[in-house]
Amino acid sequence: MTTLYEERFVPHPRDYARYDTERLREEFLVPVLFDADKTRLTYSHVDRMIVGGVMPVTKTIELESIEPLKAEFFLQRRELGAINIGGPGIVEVDGTQYEIDCKEAMYIGRGARMVKFSSRDSAAPAKFYLNSTPAHRECPTRKVGQEDAKVLEMGAGETCNQRVIRQLLVKEVVDTCQLQMGMTELAPGSVWNTMPAHTHSRRMEAYMYFNLPEDQAVCHFMGPPQQTRLIWMANEQAVISPAWSLHSGVGTSNYTFIWGMAGENLDYTDMDFVQPNELR
Length: 280
Ligand SMILES: O=C(O)C(=O)C[C@H](O)C(=O)CO
Ligand SMILES: [Zn+2]
What we know:
The protein is mainly beta. The chain has helices at 13-16, 21-28; strands at residues 3-8, 29-30, 38-44, 50-55, 61-62, 78-84, 89-93, 96-100, 105-108, 115-119, 128-134, 142-144, 150-154, 163-169, 180-186, 192-193, 197-199, 203-210, 218-223, 229-233, 237-241, 246-251, 256-263, 272-274. The chain has a single domain (3-278), classed as Jelly Rolls (Sandwich).
């Protein structure tokens, strides 16, 4: 088996408030994304986003449909974003090859039948982080490099949240149905992401932390702003944030993360902010 998957359902915020540490992790944390020569997928019923990873080492990995999709091929009714966080890689879509280096993205539109992932060098394998959502129309497949990103400078050293947001798959850069993705890099010495925190009940979100030293951790905050909980996360793990939850984190060291969203609109700026002194 090249593809391993699991299915997650939608927790209610009233039930969430009673979860213990283990249950919180079972429902929201995606602990393993990358496995040599495998595709790992988590099908969340939160806006039906699939969060996953492909790490081709010794072979080319084809994106396979999974049983819950009941589809002839993976992208029959879906769109896909893939961001490489490893060594140089190649994404092939219906016979066309795209060279995807570290921190570069691919958007693959609905209807693409054959998607393949490979690495240039098995000693430095590519690691493609995937987000996929249902799509109602076909948008053109294209590569999105760092130079194409819309860049936002956020935060300040004084509040330990200085960071650069690179919006890769957003409506100003690429045409998508509902998927948005990008990458946020913290400045050295800054540890807080997404602070001040926000919610956006119009969209769910998934975060994937990387470039975090193996012996360090990110403490990820979630929940309604008046009832927050935390999940301790390691390098290259993801977390699912339902539309009722905020999503913010603090690291014991420097890190970068990829965010991906799906839902009602494609308006990145549509957020309801919560100031730090309002959180509970
Ligand atoms: O550091 C940040 O702030 C973010 O990266 C915020 C995310 O992009 C986000 O939550 C978008 O809704
Ligand atoms: Zn958000």
